[in-house]
Amino acid sequence: MRLALGDIAASLSRTGVAVAALSLAVCAMIGVSLMVDSFRESLRDWLGRTLRADIYITAPGAGFGRPERRIEPDVVAALLATSGVVAHSESRRAQL
Question: Do residues 38 and 68 touch, judged by C-beta distance below 8 A?
Answer without folding.
Answer: no
